């Protein structure tokens, strides 16, 4: 390693640090230097770092603990090697104690190296986000996307207080929002920034949910109007629940989401419907009212009668008619669970090719089983849906089918 290399060549240094972390993990798992060649290599790599600690670690106050741990590792390894030259109970006890100590120190070294990696990664990402508009080239764009992806993977591993402190001090969240709201930034950088925001919400809701609700993230996602942004929006609704739906409704964004149901891109229509279902599950009265006023039921009825629609009642009837008497008797003999599993499997396959099948009833079920409405509100909305279905249907037969699905509700879907 070279002096000051972390500032000069962060990608290379990160690779070296990852290798050292793996070495500490190998040593923690198999702390005996003579157990195999790989463990000897692990000890050698870490002791080489200890040898160079005066030039690499001493100038960074954050690395003083790591320097001390490496010195302790060297002491334990030397004690273990000396004990191997002797026999007897005392040497056996010394070897056991030294082996256990090496494993414990290796674990602590791995933690400290991970903290070092986190600092380097956060610094590199912050610098790249700040300088993203300077000398913008495809290579720089690839580098930033890669840094964002690595950071997303890191925070997705679970909560870590030291990492959270780094994120807050570096103000990465503000930079991510700035990128997301910048329409001149490359689309894939904006989308990857959105994925990182979702990962930060899962990392610690208590800290980052407030930032999302108070900032421009939601409006920016809806304005992007891409399949990626809709996926992120659905993920945020599932994570933040009713407060986020309240924010969407208060900002007047519900009509724009409903309009995506008419988008030419099929995947966008499917994701818009998924978003509608999430809002139906977590939304309060105001949000549901806003969707119905935008003609949601009429639009869903139109999607249901399209080639990608259909009804699950018809699928269930076809399944029943296709079964022979022997099959029915056999299913009864082994229990109703077999029948239910077979039907669920058939419905999943049908929905994969017909994503808007029974979409009116599926929305009604979300209201029925959801968290956002009181019981009396659920009953009132169900009556509204029934009225709107009658008005939106093209025939009495269509109305009868959709009404039956809505009335059966969660017992069918």
> What is the strand content?
under 5%
Percent helix: over 70%
Count of individual beta strands = 0
Compressed to H and E, one letter per element, the order equals HHHHHHHHHHHHHHHHHHHHHHHH
DSSP summary: helix tally: 24
Instruction: Indicate the overall shape.
Output: elongated
Radius of gyration: 30 Å
Characteristic key phrases:
single chain; 413 residues; mainly alpha; 78% helix; disordered N terminus
Walkthrough of the structure:
Among the domains are: 1-123; 131-240; 317-353, no CATH class. It is 78% helix and 0% strand. It has helices spanning 5-8, 10-29, 37-51, 53-56, 64-83, 89-130, 138-155, 161-170, 172-181, 187-203, 205-214, 217-224, 227-240, 242-250, 254-259, 266-282, 285-293, 296-304, 312-322, 325-334, 336-353, 359-369, 375-392, 396-408. Helix 2 (10-29) crosses helix 3, helix 2 packs antiparallel against helix 6 and helix 13 (227-240) runs parallel beside helix 16 (266-282). The protein is elongated, with a radius of gyration of 30 Å. 32% of the residues are buried. It comes from Ficus carica (Common fig). This is Coatomer beta subunit. Residues 19-40 are annotated as: Disordered.
Question: Could you give a quick summary of the protein structure above?
Answer:
The chain is an all-alpha fold. It has 24 helices and no strands.
Task: Give the arrangement of secondary structure elements.
Elements: H1 5-8, H2 10-29, H3 37-51, H4 53-56, H5 64-83, H6 89-130, H7 138-155, H8 161-170, H9 172-181, H10 187-203, H11 205-214, H12 217-224, H13 227-240, H14 242-250, H15 254-259, H16 266-282, H17 285-293, H18 296-304, H19 312-322, H20 325-334, H21 336-353, H22 359-369, H23 375-392, H24 396-408
Helix pairs in contact: 2-3, 2-6, 3-5, 5-6, 6-7, 6-8, 6-9, 7-10, 9-10, 10-11, 10-13, 12-13, 13-16, 16-22, 18-23, 19-21, 20-21, 22-23, 22-24, 23-24
């Amino acid at each position: 390693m070279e002096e000051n290399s972390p500032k000069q060549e962060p990608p290379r240094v990160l690779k070296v640090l990852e290798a050292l972390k793996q070495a500490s993990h190998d040593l923690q798992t198999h702390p005996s230097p003579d157990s195999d060649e790989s463990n000897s290599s692990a000890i050698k790599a870490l002791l080489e770092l200890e040898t160079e600690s005066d030039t690499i670690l001493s100038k960074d106050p954050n690395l003083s603990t790591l320097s001390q741990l490496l010195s302790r590792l060297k002491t334990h390894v030397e004690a273990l090697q000396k004990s191997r030259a002797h026999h007897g109970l005392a040497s056996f006890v010394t070897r056991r104690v030294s082996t256990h100590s090496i494993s414990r120190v290796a674990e602590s070294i791995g933690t400290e190296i991970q903290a070092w990696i986190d600092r380097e990664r956060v610094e590199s990402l912050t610098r790249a986000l700040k300088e993203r508009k300077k000398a913008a080239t495809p290579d720089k764009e690839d580098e930033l996307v890669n840094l964002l992806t690595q950071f997303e993977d890191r925070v997705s591993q679970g909560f870590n207080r030291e990492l959270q402190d780094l994120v807050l001090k570096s103000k990465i969240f503000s930079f991510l929002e700035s990128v997301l709201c910048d329409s001149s930034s490359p689309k894939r950088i904006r989308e990857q920034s959105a994925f990182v925001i979702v990962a930060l919400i899962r990392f610690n809701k208590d800290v980052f949910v407030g930032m999302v609700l108070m900032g421009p993230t939601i409006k920016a996602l809806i304005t992007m109007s891409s399949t990626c942004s809709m996926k992120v929006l659905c993920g945020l609704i599932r994570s933040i629940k009713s407060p986020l739906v309240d924010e969407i409704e208060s900002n007047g964004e519900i009509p724009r989401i409903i309009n995506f149901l008419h988008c030419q891109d099929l995947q966008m229509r499917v994701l818009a419907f998924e978003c509608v279902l999430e809002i139906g599950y977590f939304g309060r009265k105001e949000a549901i009212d806003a969707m119905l006023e935008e003609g949601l039921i009429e639009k869903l009825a139109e999607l249901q009668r399209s080639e990608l629609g259909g009804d699950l009642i018809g699928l269930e009837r076809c399944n029943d008619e296709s079964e022979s008497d022997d099959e029915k008797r056999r299913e009864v003999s082994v229990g109703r669970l077999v029948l239910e599993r077979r039907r669920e499997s058939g419905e999943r396959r049908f929905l994969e090719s017909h994503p808007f099948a029974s979409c009116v009833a599926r929305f009604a079920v979300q209201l029925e089983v959801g968290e956002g409405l009181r019981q009396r509100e659920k009953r009132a909305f169900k009556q509204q849906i029934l009225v709107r279905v009658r008005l939106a249907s093209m025939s009495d037969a269509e109305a009868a089918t959709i009404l039956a699905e809505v009335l059966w509700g969660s017992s069918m879907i």
